[in-house]
Recover the amino acids of this structure.
């Protein structure tokens, strides 16, 4: 398909600006002006609409395809939250208004959303306060780890290491490094949870904290989590809960009750805001009393007269993590989703997410090697090891599924399982859809026995087939204009 | 049950049977009674209708009919309907990060087009596929410059958004960077002060154009001096202004970042926004965030993929260029649709229109007695106004007349309590601007009458 720039025809216009009604022309001295006009395409509105509509049709999405992408919680995104995000009273609100004198009066509705949302997230997670500022999960991690660092600094603790399990998301070690900590990794034991003996050895007085995803990326809830918290707390370490997999435990367990001091939530996973093809996300961070003094500013608080306001009076705060108050319209969508679901609804979410994951796990395990054969939470991890012996790898199975109109599960993550296939159906998928997926997986297994070589030129039904990634990295072309 | 769960009672029954347990509760046995919630006291679920009504009620508590003359890096531009309509396609907004290129060509090609448009706008060679927002993008640029130069001193111009500068300081507080801030003179970067600080330990100079006061500059001379000492120049820009302004690429900047909100994104009370970043091709491997590259498929057909992933956290883990994972792909898509619609001529005309309206507003405001519009250097669509009294008081009074009159500078610049910055976009009509000037005159006249003892 042509690029929008390649569709450009001189003189064509896609938009009419308002006519100038001020009767004068502003001037800028020549030395401050650009020499050549910006070479944006010259296309009509219809050209633009057809172009981007055609592009959209070259995507898989939750609205069009089953998307069992492990660890990403690709659940259905209810349409009404889009209606809510478009309400003009919010979408046209300028973020600097509350920074004017008594400006909080101008944005009471927005501040109420942030205030209420904080209380809802506290109740869901058992934490004491939340900041809404972090703009994505990894941004939340950074916020949390910076608060951890501030805590240790305030207490005069000499800390150097953050411990992460080998099944951790890549963002955990990357975050810890940016916050100035070194990483210590702990392996999983034969049950798929952190090896307690190894952990014991690795916890020292210099341990700043432990970052855990729970359930972990193998879909397993570690029953020893409270014991681990005790061990970490014994050296005044901080327990960090990576909320990427919160979808599994709503109403069943709250991180704040089982020893976690700080956590982030990916609103775009558990609370159903759309993934947008890779963002925007939102990663609110919750803390218990220990870390409240270090929360980023501003916080939304309420005065005795019921007025909401932005409170900057947190002298121990780590400072400003984002320009404003978070990805507001994403928070608003998640807020709407939570109050729609209510407490019971959220419990149903986890119940069915876990039920669906176990159903797939149980059915698939007769053909695919299950990394840990036990009840799982919201996702399970298989290995394509049997198929690999026949020359068919996890990536081949992924490409096969694309031809079956199914978005592939996550492959090659977590790193601790070879040829891993990580499947998270979420609560919104029906048994019929999952059965189709299981049939497709079985078909892949049969084909791996009969015609293993047939996988190598899959997928065949998509607009393009397997890309040459080596060429992409070698003959770098990331900009149309560099090559014209 | 909430309407987004498909399982019927029969389904549940059948599935439990396959799994070999008798109830859903049995699936949660790893969560022991001692892990149970101490409380889970949430309101009862609501219908969609009830939630929409509730949120509309909340929205009505915001001051939504103010006429906006407030900017500060975030502007009230018109968003064409085609932009909103196209990004509302489920195939775009309910897709995930394009890790499987064959079934993500839509997102991938759009992001490649976005990167190209950002390069065209800035006259740089390589852009990434987006970062969270303008402020965090600038922080990432600082980290990138430090990685490239292996130096740790950073000079920040006082004209760089104070909001961005605060973010940078927060982020780097656990790392060993030394920051020095230089003052703004006659609205522009102080050459004298910056040159004094340039040395072989300096990683980067951060500049902004137009700067927070709205002033336009040509930083070519600073770039030249910095480069002579191996120092990189980071330029934070306002994209709409680049429709007519000299580009950071032409000035020789090494890393360019900016806030892309004005490229077709609603104000949304602070987000989601769009952080963009572009650089020289030679630094592409040091750039954070996703990068989309063109390549060919097995049949030789053009296609697009996530490339240079070895820089990223999911591969490099603690050695990654950044911890960023989710970015703001949908906002990037939104902006490239916007830029495509406006097109080569429309985009330039939009910039000129902003300039014209702002010039008209300047002239109107200048006529008011006791008010001085700072004119020592040219401006784009935002300018600094000096009032005879505290600007925050004036702006507050202007709210009652229906205007968000500007952003008072005293909050971020000590000693500038009587100053405010005023932004005028293409949406402001001649009548609105004239009404604004009249209202401002009245407010100031009132202030003189009502508060005879003013400390001016």
């Amino acid at each position: 398909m042509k690029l929008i720039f390649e569709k450009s025809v001189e003189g064509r216009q896609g938009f009419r600006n308002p006519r100038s009604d001020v009767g004068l022309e502003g001037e800028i001295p020549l030395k401050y002006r650009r020499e050549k006009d910006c070479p944006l395409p010259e296309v009509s509105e219809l050209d633009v609409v057809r172009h981007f509509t055609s592009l959209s049709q070259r995507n898989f999405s939750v609205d069009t395809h089953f998307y069992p992408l492990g660890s990403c919680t690709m659940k259905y995104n209810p349409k009404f939250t889009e209606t809510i995000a478009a309400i003009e009273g919010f979408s046209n609100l300028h973020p600097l208004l509350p920074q004017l004198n008594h400006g909080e009066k101008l944005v009471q509705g927005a501040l109420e959303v942030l205030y209420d949302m904080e209380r809802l997230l506290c109740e869901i997670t058992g934490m004491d306060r939340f900041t809404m500022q972090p703009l994505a999960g990894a941004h939340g991690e950074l916020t949390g780890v910076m608060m951890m660092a501030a805590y240790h600094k305030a207490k005069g603790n000499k800390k150097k290491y953050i411990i992460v399990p080998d099944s951790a998301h890549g963002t955990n070690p990357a975050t810890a490094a940016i916050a100035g900590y070194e990483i210590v990794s702990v392996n999983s034991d034969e049950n798929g949870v952190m090896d307690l003996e190894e952990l014991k050895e690795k916890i020292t007085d210099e341990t700043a904290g432990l970052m855990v995803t729970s359930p972990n990326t193998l879909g397993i809830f570690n029953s020893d989590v409270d014991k681990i918290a005790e061990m970490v707390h014994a050296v005044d370490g901080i327990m960090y809960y990576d909320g990427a997999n919160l979808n599994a435990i709503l109403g069943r367990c709250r991180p704040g009750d089982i020893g976690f001091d700080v956590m982030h939530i990916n609103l775009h996973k558990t609370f159903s805001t759309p993934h947008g093809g890779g963002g925007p996300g939102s990663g609110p961070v919750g803390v218990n009393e220990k870390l409240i003094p270090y929360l980023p500013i501003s916080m939304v608080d309420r005065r005795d007269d019921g007025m909401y306001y932005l409170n900057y009076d947190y002298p121990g705060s780590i400072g400003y993590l984002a320009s404003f108050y978070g990805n507001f319209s994403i928070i608003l969508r998640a807020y709407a989703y939570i109050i729609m679901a209510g407490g019971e609804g959220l419990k149903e979410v986890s119940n069915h997410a876990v039920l669906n994951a176990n159903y797939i796990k149980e059915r698939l395990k007769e053909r695919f090697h299950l990394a840990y054969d036990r009840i799982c939470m919201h996702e399970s991890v298989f290995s394509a090891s049997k198929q690999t012996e026949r020359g068919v790898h996890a990536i081949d199975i992924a490409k096969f599924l694309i031809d079956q109109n199914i978005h592939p599960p996550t492959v090659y993550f977590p790193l601790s399982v070879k040829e891993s296939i990580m499947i998270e159906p979420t609560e919104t998928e029906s048994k019929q859809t999952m059965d189709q997926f299981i049939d497709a997986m079985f078909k892949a297994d049969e084909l791996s026995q009969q015609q293993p070589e047939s996988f190598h030129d899959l997928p065949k039904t998509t607009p393009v087939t397997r890309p040459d990634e080596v060429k992409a990295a070698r003959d770098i072309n990331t900009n149309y204009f560099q090559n014209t | 049950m909430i309407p987004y769960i498909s399982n019927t009672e029969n389904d549940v029954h059948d599935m439990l049977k396959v799994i070999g347990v008798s109830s859903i509760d049995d699936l949660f046995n790893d969560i022991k009674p001692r892990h149970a919630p101490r409380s889970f006291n949430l309101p009862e679920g609501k219908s969609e209708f009830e939630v929409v009504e509730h949120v509309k009620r909340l929205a009505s508590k915001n001051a939504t009919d103010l006429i906006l003359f407030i900017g500060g890096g975030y502007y009230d531009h018109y968003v064409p309907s085609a932009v909103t309509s196209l990004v509302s396609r489920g195939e775009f907004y309910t897709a995930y990060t394009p890790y499987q290129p064959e079934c993500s060509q839509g997102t991938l090609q759009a992001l490649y087009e976005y990167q190209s448009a950002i390069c065209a706008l800035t006259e740089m060679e390589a852009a990434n596929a987006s970062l969270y927002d303008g402020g965090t993008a600038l922080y990432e640029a600082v980290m990138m410059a430090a990685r490239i130069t292996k130096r740790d001193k950073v000079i920040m111009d006082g004209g760089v958004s104070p909001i961005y500068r605060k973010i940078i300081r927060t982020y780097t507080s656990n790392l060993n960077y030394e920051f020095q801030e230089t003052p703004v003179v006659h609205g522009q970067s102080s050459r004298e002060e910056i040159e004094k600080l340039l040395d072989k330990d300096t990683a980067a100079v951060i500049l902004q154009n137009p700067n927070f006061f709205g002033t336009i500059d040509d930083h070519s001379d600073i770039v030249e001096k910095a480069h002579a000492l191996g120092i990189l120049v980071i330029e934070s820009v306002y994209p709409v202004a680049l429709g007519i302004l000299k580009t950071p690429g032409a000035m020789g900047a090494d890393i360019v970042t900016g806030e892309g909100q004005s490229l077709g994104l609603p104000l949304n009370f602070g987000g989601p926004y769009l952080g963009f970043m572009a650089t020289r091709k030679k630094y592409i491997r040091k750039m954070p965030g996703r990068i989309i590259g063109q390549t060919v498929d097995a049949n030789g057909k053009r296609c697009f993929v996530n490339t240079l992933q070895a820089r990223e956290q999911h591969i490099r883990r603690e050695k990654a260029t950044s911890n960023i994972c989710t970015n703001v792909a949908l906002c990037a898509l939104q902006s490239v649709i916007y830029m495509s619609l406006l097109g080569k001529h429309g985009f330039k005309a939009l910039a000129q229109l902003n300039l014209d309206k702002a010039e008209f507003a300047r002239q109107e405001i200048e006529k008011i007695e006791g008010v001085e519009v700072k004119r020592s250097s040219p401006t784009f669509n935002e300018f600094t106004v000096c009032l005879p009294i505290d600007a925050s008081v004036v702006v507050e009074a202007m709210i009652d007349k229906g205007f968000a009159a500007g952003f008072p500078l005293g909050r971020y610049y000590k000693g500038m309590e009587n100053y405010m910055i005023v932004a005028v976009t293409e949406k402001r009509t001649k009548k609105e601007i004239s009404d604004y000037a009249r209202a401002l005159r009245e407010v100031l006249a009132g202030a003189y009458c009502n508060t005879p003892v003013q400390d001016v």
